[in-house]
Amino acid sequence: MMELAARLPLRDTIAPAQQGELVVAVQRAFAEETPVYPIGGGTSLDFGLPAADEGIALQLSGLDRVIDYPARDMTITVEAGMTMTRLAETLAAEGQRLPVDVPDPDRATLGGVIATNTSGPRRYGQGTMRDYVIGISAVDGRGVLFKGGGRVVKNVAGYDFCKLLTGSLGTLGIISQVTLKVRPVPRASRLLATPVNGWNEGRQRLEALASGAARPVAIEWLIGPAWSDDPALVSAAEGTCGRLVVGLEGTVDEVDWMEQELNRHWDELGAAAWSTIVDDAAPALWRRLTDFPANPDAPLVVKANVAPSYTTSYLQRLQIIDPDCSVQAHAGSGIIVCRFSPTPPAQGYEQIFPLGLVPEATMGQGSVVVLGGRVTRELPPPAIWGKPTTAWKWMTRVKQQFDPKNLLNRGRFVYEH
Amino acid sequence: MIAQRFPELVRELQRVVGHDGVLAAQSELVVYECDGYVIDKNSPDVVVFPRTTEHVAQIVRLCNEHDVPFLPRGAGTSLAGGCLPVGGGVMIVLTRMKEILEIHLHDRYAVVQPGVVNIHLTQKLKGSGYHYAPDPSSQGACTIGGNFATNSGGPHTLKYGVTVNHVLGVEAVLADGSVVQFGGPAEDYPGLDLPGVLVGSEGTLAIATRLWVRLTRDPQGYRTLLAVFDSVDDATNAISEVIAAGIVPAALEMMDQGILVALEEAFHFGFPLDAEAILLIEVDGLEAGLDAQRDEIIELCQRSGAREVRRAETAAERQKLWKARKQAFGAVGRLSPSYCTQDGVVPRTKLPHMLRRIAEIGSRHDVRVVNVFHAGDGNLHPILLFDERDQAQVRRVLEASEEILDECIACGGSVTGEHGIGVEKLDFMPRLFAAEDLAAMDRLRIAFNPDGRLSPHKMLPTAGACSIEQSSPQRRAAL
Ligand SMILES: Cc1cc2nc3c(=O)[nH]c(=O)nc-3n(C[C@H](O)[C@H](O)[C@H](O)COP(=O)(O)OP(=O)(O)OC[C@H]3O[C@@H](n4cnc5c(N)ncnc54)[C@H](O)[C@@H]3O)c2cc1C
Fold first, then answer.
1. CA dist A181 → A77, A149, B330 (Å)
2. How confident is the model at residue A417 (pLDDT cuts 50, 70, 90)?
3. Given the DSSP bridges, would you call strands B46-48 and B90-93 parallel, antiparallel or unpaired?
4. Which value does ipTM take for this structure?
5. What pTM was computed for the model?
6. Helix crossing, A311-321 with A199-211: angle to 10°?
7. B271 Cβ under 8 Å from any chain A Cβ
8. How far is the CA of B148 from the centre of ligand 1 (A)?
């Protein structure tokens, strides 16, 4: 855990083996007013602002039991320190899955994924963590274990703590146990790619995909050096504005039909045909599509969220700011991840936010946040979390109720104090 | 004539929304003394009809200045007493805020005011290739604001998700009168998912004044089946088999013999009266996959002992089956003068056990119970039949209801899948949740509604001081 100490100001690391030990550790921290940094797989510690004060780490990967898996009910209850790989293996044994894409699944834990609301290409067709968490337990900033939801797929009793804690960055409670709704593994899955020549063409193709008869589970727009020589994509020509990649899932008949339909549609549009990514290469490409945001070498990785029809405009702006950047847009959802090139922008990293990234996101009715990268620590808080809105005041009110001494992940999110 | 308790406040409210936007006479207020839950009744002191967000904000500020409680109301179809003005006060009825403000098909969202009736959005979208997925059976009357507040479901939410899965953002007036936007047309705004938290908060955290809702592509096709079973056990077993086979039907509804008899008497749909249960199963999606799914379901039903599986071959036949399902509650009126619908949930595999228990509890309390429900979700709606003029029957119905809900909890389920806690099920909250869980919920309430003036005494046993006599479930309105 050398690496951890370098990334967080740690005085001590505690690794509870039981939820009860977790409670005791937080209660002690509360009494001593010691900041607490919950850690799952340690994969997203650069997300958000740097930790503010010295404190203790709570290493949660020891909480990794399956509590209950009634597979025929299509729900599973597990402890939150379980890695995503183990969860996936457990579900796969019953032909089921949680269809949320997570980078570095061997290390990433379910609790961390929920806290950071991680998602990937399939979000377009399958949704995000908020659509799957149906029950949750967490330890608040006083060391009190509380829960919400339950173990059934439909339930409106009480306030929805599942939604409250999903994406809360571990600032309201340390997630200890989770019940998920799961899905059957589709019988067939396929990836197709097509070149994009020019921004207008890209915009039109996206509209065609969004309203076409085929229903892809993922619509990805990939631009830049990270994708140019991708081994799975080399067979698919790259256009002047990169490539579109779609993911198809369903029964064999459905996937075959969608592939035909996409080609028929593209032919009608006078567009180049789709190339099918060969089966051997497809799993690795899914993996790269999932891992892209987590690249540790890029100087800066940002994520913008805009209304989907604004995606093209945002991509254009990114190209102006850094012509050599690599971009992945979950284009059907208006989520754009950009890895900047090694060449610093002429106006400096700090300035590209107020001068380009932020106003462009505002135009698209969204915002932009920093996911990571070497220069993150040099950026001021407004760059990391984007423009404050009036909603933040109410987030702060909630934070004060759940963590009155501001111990949980102190400083990582910009609550107003 | 009962004197108006807050004459000064009434005058100030009239200045905000005009005279035609305020009701203050007792004779007009009685209409608002309850919603679809009719056991507890209490008139508000004033009813006010805002037309803009700014109106709502001003009304809330005036209520705070006068220290008077207030609560939002949509169409008043809540089945849990969410609209009961406990302790009186000002009722803010949002039905005049009924504009569909924007529709963006390419971005898959619409912006609506809270008083838009659910089905109006669907009608407006007809022919566009998109629809609004949450389809509560009350969709012809209930408002999207009310759906937001109760996190409503419907037959097709099995595949498509309930209201919270379709709300992107909300502009709300909070308990202190401030106007705040949470979320919006894009996904993944930074910070806490407060739109997700406000959905289902039953009007106790915020008053929605504008909503960004997700639009869903229409499916390319449907296959609708009606499977007839000689035993309830076989039917519930078939449900389990279908789900376990990895099929996600768009809808999977069950009706038992009691309901079938009532439906036949009323509408002559041609259901077999000797069947113990029927399943209405629909799959939707790409045409390319539908026949295979249909055939697999037929086979699973037959293997589970279905006597017969009928297919809807045409759109008209499909509509007829859905009409039967949607009219089931109307038909119950033929069986008895009064009835009470419960809203329990159990894990789907516990359905056979739960239905046996419901029958057994009913017969032990000498109460007739019929069932029509969202079987695919495990969301039961046992309907208890009685005559409300007979106090002994009423008592037995209350006891049986309570036992049924307790059994849902014992099965690892919940006491409400879509109707909400309201005032009706307050007593069950401490049975479902530990004291620490309820305390955490109370803290969330305090973050938004610290003085408790916004819809007091709802949802949480601790949400207010003034005591109303807690009564148990007993209502005529139904799923
Ligand atoms: C015949 C019948 C069938 C039904 N079928 C279903 C069904 O299939 N599925 C289902 O889920 N429910 C069903 N219901 C229950 C009910 O229709 C739903 O709960 C519906 O969402 C309520 O909408 P409403 O506009 O009538 O809200 P109301 O009853 O007016 O209000 C419900 C709650 O929401 C709050 N509220 C209303 N508007 C707002 C707002 N703008 N901001 C904040 N809070 C607000 C109120 O204070 C109250 O707590 C049914 C009811 C009936 C009578």
1. 9, 12, 33
2. low
3. parallel
4. 0.96
5. 0.95
6. 150
7. no
8. 8
